[in-house]
Amino acid sequence: MTAAAARRAYRPELRPGVRFSPPLLRGPRTVRLIRHPATGAAFEVGEKEHFLIARLDGTRTLDDLAPLYAERFGRRVGEEHWNRLLGLLGTRGLLVGAPDPVVPAPEPEPPNSLWRGTRPMVRDADATTARLHRVLRPVLRPAVQLPLAAAVLALLVLLAWQAGPLVAAAGGLTGRPAALAGIALFLWFSITVHELAHGVAAQHYGGHVTEIGLKWRLPAALLYCTVDDYLFLPGLRAKLVIAGAGAYLNMALLLPFGVWWLLLPAGAAERPFVAGLLLLGTIQGLGNLVPLPPLDGYRMLGHALGTARLAPETRAYLALRRSGGAEAVAGYPPRARRLYAAYASGAVLLVLLAVTATAALLFLLLR
Q1: Counting CB atoms within 10 angstroms of each CB, which of 76, 164, 293, 318 has the fewest?
Q2: By C-alpha distance, which of 245, 278, 242, 244 is closest to 260?
Q3: Cα-Cα end-to-end distance for the chain
Q4: What global pTM score does this model have?
Q5: CB 239, CB 231: distance < 8 Å
Q6: How far apart are CA 192 and CA 183, in angstroms?
């Protein structure tokens, strides 16, 4: 058998455990991420390549797949394209029998200094969050979470209704350093459990946590939790819950203070403390849902829209429009043009609203 005939008779099989992301809009293209089951390395392919790769089950040759490809895309896959695709998959170690690829050493991180740096805090972050998940599993059931979500919504209604009295009472924090320190400590704790909430939510939906550590940019020092594979989890709900778990927990932690506020008499000495904690805690929790990078709301919006690198691709699209690259802009599908233009307008509006709201709140508090 000649080499050409052998290649046409070859029935490639994808390695077990290879995972695909859903289709993601990236610039003018729709791409998929493919993840190696052992090394965790991921790379992008187009929809045409994904169509072929997803059908490599060890029973089909090029002659079997070519008619399916032609029916889907209106042209037959060429033998040269087929050989390049198999070469890529073999080099990446994604075919049965192919060796694992050599994972390149990560680029060295800048050395830690007194002013900024990161440091892992646990040896096995995945096992740590798995233990937390086992402990917390009873409270993650719908019978608990549905009433809790309703209580968080009720708290938001209360905060909107009491916005004026809360701002007025929080103004009394001026000259009370002990109360301000207590609020700052609570907010730091809230940020810490915010990060762990992402990890526990990832465990709940089958994701994995690669690192838990401390990140400092003095004078701030915060915990971080890295989830590496939740883009490959099936379904949109899991991704949205994992991305939004931290903000949801932040708001849930404020529930006792909302009840405390309702029970406090009008002249109580604790009112400034409770009001300041509710206001700043709400800004912290809901602020994370703003769809601007690197906030959780930005990730949630990207998942909901099915996009990759939404902000950078928006900047690239606007740069093309400003430079007059009509042909390049015409290469974007209509949905991409509408989406990137809308996100650019929305991002500008959000920044203006954030600046205005911050200035208004400071004015009211100082007054």
Answers
A1: 164
A2: 278
A3: 88
A4: 0.89
A5: yes
A6: 14
